[in-house]
């Protein structure tokens, strides 16, 4: 059964500072530049933290507010019409207040329900799902959906990484920072892109997490636990398979044929993994819309960066399908868009 | 890196390096085994291994060729002069 339609009226994104290339990153991390280039396949990323000094230049709330301001500045959008805000992130600035409320404050929005989803790579889609459900309820007509991450919170430029485990080190070459936002409306407006279907499903029963991000409090802050752990081997094995399953499930739900797709937004793990997954998805007639090779994997910002790129190309009647996998606890996610 | 700084890395030394640097407990007879038959192998180990090999041999390692290798022996061949 397809989900009731909401519409994307506008989109905005924010990437902090200048792009950081592999030469600069390799120097800071003390790793092989060619390895990042060839094995990860990501060329540049952006960091909210200054790579030289470690100083925080932008908070997650700053980036989310910047992205939202761009979405709200679109001609067809009235910021006063925003009736709810949903934010998906894995890296909130603080546990309380929830970052979504700091974003509302920066945007000058008040007296609206706000929600924050603690989420990894599927979070932007979970936020879209919540937004769509709220609009479909008939209680709300316009809302703001945001996704963002500041992965560089764990990029300690003073740390000696020479003894770091590969499952630790790989995080620093994969990830980046950024945010994106979309204004959702009940009726077509602005970009007039219908959100035809959203998939968000936990499928990790009994499975070991593929990605773990610890958090530390006063009582355990000196624990020797690895802050970030990525089971790259499991991700390499499972994500392409799950991505193909998601594609066909979404097409089935929508009653769309694969060759009807004009655009495909594949999972954005890294430049190399995304290339491989796109090949396995096997929809050569659809144009691939990817950003990770230039933006790095900035988690919850990725689908918005892809949608922004897509909107510049989409013509009337064009169909697009997005696939995402959150490997933390193996969540299948995706959505379908149609320009009307 | 100059030629004078390069060093020969025997296959046995390479096996020791693999054990020390990435903690993979392999026996010398497993060095030519396909990665599919080495359940504990993780392609992520290459990050550590490339850096360690460059330090041990004093030569730059061709990462693209290392990624194509199907066994540790093939990686050794690339690193020592392939």
TrEMBL record, chain A:
Transmembrane domains' residue ranges: none
The answer to whether keyword Transport applies is no
Q: Which GO terms describe its biological process?
A: fatty acid biosynthetic process; secondary metabolite biosynthetic process
Which InterPro entries does the annotation name?
ACP_syn_III_N (IPR013751), Thiolase-like (IPR016039)
Beta-ketoacyl-[acyl-carrier-protein] synthase III N-terminal domain sequence ranges? 115-190
Pfam families under this entry? ACP_syn_III
Q: Which UniProt keywords apply?
A: Cytoplasm
Molecular function (GO) terms for this protein are: 3-oxoacyl-[acyl-carrier-protein] synthase activity
Write down the superkingdom of origin: Bacteria
The identity of this protein, by name, is 3-oxoacyl-ACP synthase
What organism is listed for this UniProt entry? Streptomyces actuosus
Automatic annotation (TrEMBL), chain B:
Record's InterPro entries?
A: ACP-like_sf
In terms of superkingdom, the source organism counts as: Bacteria
Recorded protein name is Acyl carrier protein
């Amino acid at each position: 059964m397809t989900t009731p339609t909401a519409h994307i009226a506008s989109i905005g994104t924010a990437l902090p500072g200048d792009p950081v290339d592999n030469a600069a990153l390799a120097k800071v991390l003390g790793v092989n530049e060619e390895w990042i280039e060839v094995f990860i396949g990501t060329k540049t990323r952006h960091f909210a933290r200054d790579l030289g000094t470690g100083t925080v230049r932008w908070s997650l709330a700053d980036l989310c507010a910047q992205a939202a301001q761009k979405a709200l500045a679109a001609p067809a959008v009235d910021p006063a019409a925003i009736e709810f805000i949903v934010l998906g992130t894995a890296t909130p600035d603080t546990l309380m207040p929830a970052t979504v409320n700091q974003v509302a404050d920066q945007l000058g929005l008040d007296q609206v329900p706000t929600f924050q989803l603690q989420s990894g790579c599927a979070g932007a889609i979970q936020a879209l799902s919540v937004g769509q459900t709220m609009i479909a309820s008939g209680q709300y007509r316009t809302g703001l959906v945001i996704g963002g991450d500041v992965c560089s919170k764990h990029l300690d430029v003073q740390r000696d990484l020479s003894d770091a485990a590969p499952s630790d080190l790989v995080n620093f070459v994969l990830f980046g920072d950024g945010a994106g936002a979309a204004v959702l409306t009940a009726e077509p407006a602005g970009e007039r892109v219908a959100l035809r279907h959203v998939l968000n499903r936990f499928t990790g029963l009994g499975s070991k997490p593929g990605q773990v991000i610890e958090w530390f409090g006063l009582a355990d802050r000196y624990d020797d636990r690895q802050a970030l752990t990525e089971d790259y081997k499991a991700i390499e094995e499972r994500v392409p398979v799950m991505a193909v399953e998601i594609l066909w499930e979404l097409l089935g739900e929508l009653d769309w044929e694969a060759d009807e797709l004009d655009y495909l937004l594949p999972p954005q793990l890294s430049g190399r993994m995304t290339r491989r997954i796109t090949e396995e998805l096997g929809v050569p007639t659809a144009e691939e819309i990817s950003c990770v090779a230039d933006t790095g994997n900035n988690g919850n910002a990725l689908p918005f960066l892809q949608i922004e790129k897509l909107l510049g190309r989409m013509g009337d009647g064009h169909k697009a399908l997005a696939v995402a996998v959150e490997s933390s606890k193996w969540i299948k996610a995706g959505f379908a868009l149609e320009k009307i | 890196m100059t030629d004078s700084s390069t060093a020969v890395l025997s296959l046995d030394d390479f096996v020791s390096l693999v054990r020390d640097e990435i903690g993979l407990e392999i026996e010398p007879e497993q060095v030519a085994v396909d990665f599919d038959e080495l359940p504990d192998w993780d392609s992520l180990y290459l990050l550590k291994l490339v850096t360690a090999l460059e330090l041990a041999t004093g030569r730059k390692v061709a990462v693209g060729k290392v990624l194509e290798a199907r066994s540790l022996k093939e990686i050794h061949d690339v690193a020592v002069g392939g």
